[in-house]
Design brief:
heterodimer, A: alpha/beta, Rossmann fold, three-stranded antiparallel β-sheet, 29% helix, B: alpha/beta, seven-stranded mixed β-sheet, 19 helices, binds thiamine diphosphate, binds iron/sulfur cluster, binds magnesium ion, 2-oxoacid/accept_OxRdtase_asu (chain B), 2-oxoacid:acceptor oxidoreductase subunit alpha (chain B), oxidoreductase (chain B), Pyruvate:ferred/Flavod_OxRd (chain B), oxidoreductase activity, acting on the aldehyde or oxo group of donors (chain B)
Chain lengths: 350, 632
């Protein structure tokens, strides 16, 4: 069985600055369950990349294992993809990024993939501030292995078979903040309005950009009593603010009412406009973000939106002082020191 | 106490084993290294070996130096001169001396009567006393004690003093202040020995010209340097003895030789990963993205990397993995040598997997095979594991100097660029990542970012068709894994071939063979010589790679009996041979050593003679047996 999309193009389909239609950002047909939150996240990513006019082949998609980790097949069909092993997407992405710093890296993972088997790699990729977009498609269960509870299942949440979770959940967003992540957001697969600009901002961020997207599993964890069901999330989420993303090369056309908006300018010059913000919420204050998330948690609410951003981060290449030219482009002339040097090295062994 | 003329003395020139018994963390290593290097600079072949505990300070550590003008570089049983400066291990150390040999000790305090044997000579030098008189600082007393015994040994063994003083000069280049005090300490020992003993002893060294242009270095140093020359740009690792110094060497040379002159930027990256799973994941990610990348580890790390090795095998991603093997898991023997990972590496991971292995036996081969490993892994699009070990990796070995052909180009394997992808379209062909167009099992790949609309593909483990499209069809799976087998047949042709050492009995074909690999080489060669001198003629074959070249099977078929040397308990290479070849298992006889010490020629000879002797007397009754006694 293969799931390739028919190669039909609508002649009037809108194109972006590069002349691509949104179809050029699609992938194979999804094989996930109808209504799975993960498919909406793929769609949001397609829209974000299309609207940002990203060259599809300048993106590399990497994932672990799970329903969520399958999704890179279903978007950006003109990009290279790598479905690696369970919980180890961060290391593969780290290696790939070190090899070629010029591409954009999109890592897709699940809550099982990142919060259980891959928690170690998750923590360390945050510490390294690897320049990538890291998406966790968080359904509070193991979809692919048929609905077991995961480490992000909320306390007292009930799954489809009626089991109640009694273990403390791991909140990856708070963990990322504690570990020094430089861009942290939470969203909901059912809220494209919020998710698309967040993805755009994340991809413009020069460093580790983490988005935890609550993404209901319609098959195993969308029942009453589940705290990761569509209904529950719709009813219990509050956004830090509404947001608009203006890429560096675009002019700001919308006018915002004085005092009602906050502007955050990213390293590459793009701007995030935040409106209708929760009173006093500042997305550049890490501690305040942690507190706000915890306060919402205690009230049984999910805080979404842009939670924290560091506008001038130091990424892994900065820390290492690696060449501006991608390492994978270097040839013998710069890599191999040659025989004359080797002969003098031999001398040191005599 | 001093040399006793009534006890017969060993007599030897340039054929000796000297062992230093020290306490680790006392600075003895650099003094002992100086000793070995001095012999080397006198033109005499030398092989030093560290025998050390998994500990930073306080436990016994030994340094065994074999001097052999015949050029034998394996370990040799029996100690001619023991330099016993560690009271903790003295009881054992005194027993290790051969009758007629010498026991050198610190005579500041009288020697415990229990350590007195009547068949060896005692050389007491009051090291502590001399230091107490000369130095006030306790750390200096400690450090110079080591230098003083080297000075004494110079007189006793006839080591040229100028060679030692030159070495001091080299060692402290840039720290000029330290040169004079060190030379003074050498003199203190030298003079004391000359005054109190009749120097030199009957065992001694004499200058020769046998070293020529050879070098003395460790396998790990050579491996790290080889990775720099091979163009590795990404190294990811997690510290583990005995592999740590591989990445340290890569770092040392890269930080000198790989800095962009204009910008000061690094043309390489080294990541100390959070564990070995992550280290190999990074290597695979980097290689998938077109950089030459590697990791170095030892047995426990191999176990952790196993899942990823399976992925890389199926997904056909290059990766160079340096395995500096050590004995067993956890605590106890991690600082002792063995070859215990042959099977776990050859068949690393779940599913129908196998891995390409290379077996170096000298630092020169570490350098060459590491460089070749990067070509092979990219040509074959599968991981390549360099199977070094603690003995090779962490000890100095004498070998031919490294060379590099400046005309050499890296073999980056079958990789299509944008123009080639366009040309394919023009010819009306479709790019298929797993399409075996050349029928050698190796397909063309592309790096991410190559072409806006062509050549992108999705990498995953199993189950994809020739165009990298997901499939769970059984036939598609079978086609793919059968192709991977085809690729391994191709590998056999391009991997380094085994080395044949034919017995030198021109009149008769030998019907006994000896197969060995890695660090068993030196002792195997010595054993073959020694057996030949007794009229036992054996053909040798040294394996350099897995999967095996067809000549390996031929070699086994051509001999009635073939001994297989393994420095592990279970005869892992023998198992691999039995498993992979259509050779008769009953022909293959285990020859084992697994006590954590490098195998000796004497051990090899003993096991072969024992087997041949019992076999002759029991008229080949042992035809069915395949095992033999383990190492001592
Ligand atoms: C090493 C290993 N252990 C277990 C599995 C089985 N497995 C596959 S997916 C999965 C859980 C996936 O959960 P999550 O990451 O939350 O993804 P989801 O399917 O919910 O999107 C597990 C345990 C595996 N593939 N590899
Ligand atoms: S099982 Fe759940 S997570 Fe997996 S595809 Fe179906 S709905 Fe999505
Ligand atoms: Mg999940």
């Amino acid at each position: 069985m293969t799931y390739l999309r028919p190669d039909f193009r609508h002649p009037d389909a809108p194109t972006n600055d590069l002349g691509y239609t949104s179809k050029d950002y699609e992938g194979a047909l999804s094989t996930l369950c109808a209504g799975c939150g993960h498919d909406s996240i793929s769609a949001a990513l397609i829209q974000a990349c299309f609207e940002m006019s990203i060259e599809p082949h300048q993106v590399a998609k990497i994932s672990g294992i799970g329903c969520s980790s399958k999704t890179p097949t279903y978007f950006l069909g003109n990009s290279h993809g790598f479905n690696s092993v369970h919980g180890r997407m961060p290391s593969v992405t780290t290696g790939a990024n070190l090899a070629n710093r010029d591409l954009k890296y999109v890592g897709v993972s699940g809550d099982g993939d990142s919060a259980s088997i891959g928690l170690g790699q998750f923590a360390h990729v945050v510490r390294r501030n690897l320049n990538m977009l890291y998406i966790v498609e968080n359904n509070g269960c193991y979809g692919l292995t048929k609905g077991q509870m995961s480490a992000t299942t909320d306390i007292d949440s009930v799954n489809k078979s009626g089991m109640v979770n009694e273990h403390q959940p791991i909140d990856l967003v708070n963990l990322a903040l504690e570990l020094g992540a430089t861009f942290v957001a939470r969203s909901f697969s059912g809220d494209k309005e919020q998710l698309v600009p967040l993805m755009k901002a994340a991809m413009s961020h020069r460093g580790f950009a983490f988005i935890d997207v609550v993404s209901p599993c319609v098959t195993f964890n969308n029942n009453a009593g589940s705290k990761k069901s569509y209904d529950f999330v719709r009813e219990h989420n509050e956004a830090t603010s509404a947001l608009d993303f203006v890429p560096m090369k675009d002019e700001i056309t919308t006018t915002y009412e004085q005092g009602s908006s906050q502007e955050v300018t990213l390293h590459d010059g793009s701007v995030i406009h935040l409106t209708k913000a929760i009173k006093g919420f500042d997305p550049c204050d890490r501690r305040a973000a942690i507190k706000a998330i915890k306060d919402h948690n205690e009230r049984g609410e999910i805080l979404t939106g842009l939670l924290y951003v560091d506008t001038d981060p130091t990424d892994l290449h900065d820390m290492y002082g690696t060449s501006c030219k991608p390492l994978n482009s270097l040839k013998e002339d710069v890599l191999c020191p040659g025989n004359a040097t080797l002969q003098s090295i031999n001398e040191s062994f005599r | 106490m001093s040399s006793n003329s009534k006890i017969p003395s060993l007599k030897a020139i340039n054929e000796l084993v000297i062992k230093f018994a020290n306490v680790n963390g006392t600075g003895s290593a650099s003094a002992n290294n100086m000793f070995a290097k001095a012999i080397f600079r006198m033109g005499i072949p030398v092989t030093p070996k560290n025998i050390f505990p998994s500990n930073i300070q306080g436990l016994p550590t030994w340094y065994e130096v074999r001097i052999s003008e015949k050029g034998y570089q394996g370990r040799r049983d029996g100690i001619d001169l023991m330099v016993a400066v560690n009271p903790q291990s003295m009881a054992k150390d005194v027993q290790a001396v051969r009758p007629g040999g010498y026991f050198f000790y610190d005579s500041t305090r009288p020697l415990d009567i229990r350590y007195v044997r009547d068949d060896i000579h005692y050389i007491g030098v009051p090291l502590t006393d001399i230091c107490r008189q000369e130095y006030t600082d306790p750390r200096q007393r400690q450090l110079f004690k080591n230098v003083i015994y080297i000075g004494a040994l110079a007189a006793l063994l006839n080591i040229e003093f100028t060679v030692l003083s030159d070495l001091v000069g080299d060692q402290f280049k840039g720290k000029q202040k330290l040169i004079a005090p060190n030379i003074h300490a050498l003199e203190l020992g030298y003079q004391y020995a000359n005054k109190h003993f009749s120097c030199p002893l009957d065992i001694r060294v004499e200058r020769r010209d046998l070293v020529q242009d050879q070098i003395l270095t460790t396998g790990n140093n050579a491996t790290g340097l080889g990775a720099v020359y091979a163009g590795a740009t990404v190294a990811a690792w997690y510290p583990i003895t005995p592999s740590t110094s591989v990445v340290e060497a890569f770092d040392k040379y890269a930080s000198r030789l790989r800095i962009d002159a204009g910008t000061g930027q690094k043309n390489y990256a080294i990541v100390q990963a959070e564990d070995e799973l992550s280290a190999i994941g990074m290597v695979i990610g980097a290689a998938w993205n077109g950089a030459r990348s590697f990791t170095a580890t030892s047995g426990p790390g191999i176990s952790l990397m196993s899942e990823f090795l399976g992925l890389a095998y199926f997904a056909e991603v290059p990766a160079v993995l340096i395995n500096v093997q050590r004995a067993g898991p956890s605590t106890g023997m991690p600082t002792r040598t063995q070859q215990p990972d042959v099977l776990s590496c050859a068949y690393a991971s779940h599913g129908d997997t196998k891995q390409v292995l290379l077996f170096p036996s000298t630092p020169k081969e570490c350098f060459d095979l590491t460089a070749q490993a990067f070509d092979l892994t990219e040509r074959l699009q599968t991981p390549v594991i360099l199977m070094s070990d603690l003995d090779l990796g962490m000890n100095d070995h004498m070998c031919e100097p490294f060379t590099w052909d400046d005309a050499r180009e890296y073999d980056r394997g079958k990789v299509l660029n944008a123009e080639q992808l366009d040309a394919l379209t023009e010819k009306g062909e479709r790019f298929g990542r797993y399409n075996d167009v050349d029928s050698d099992g190796i397909c063309y790949r592309t790096y991410p970012g190559t072409h806006p609309t062509k050549g992108a593909f999705f990498t995953r483990g199993t189950s994809r068709d020739p165009y990298a499209v997901y499939s769970e069809d059984g036939d598609v799976y079978v086609d793919n894994v059968d192709r991977l087998n085809r690729k391994f047949n191709t590998a056999k042709q391009i991997l380094p071939k085994p080395m044949l050492v034919l017995a030198k009995n021109a009149n008769k074909k030998s019907d006994i063979g000896l197969i060995y690999y890695g660090t068993s080489d030196a002792s195997a060669n010595e054993a073959l010589d020694n057996l030949a001198a007794k009229g036992v003629f054996i053909d040798g074959m040294r394996l350099l790679a897995f999967p095996f070249h067809q000549t390996v099977e031929q070699f086994i078929n051509d001999h009635e009996q073939v001994f297989v040397i393994d420095q592990n308990r279970d005869g892992q290479m023998r198992t691999l041979l039995v498993n992979e070849l259509d050779a008769l298992p009953s022909k293959l006889i285990k020859l084992l050593s697994y006590d954590g010490m490098p195998i000796t020629a004497m051990n090899i000879c003993r096991q072969i003679e024992q087997r041949l002797f019992t076999e002759n007397t029991s008229k080949k009754a042992a035809n069915s047996a395949s095992s033999s006694k383990g190492g001592k």
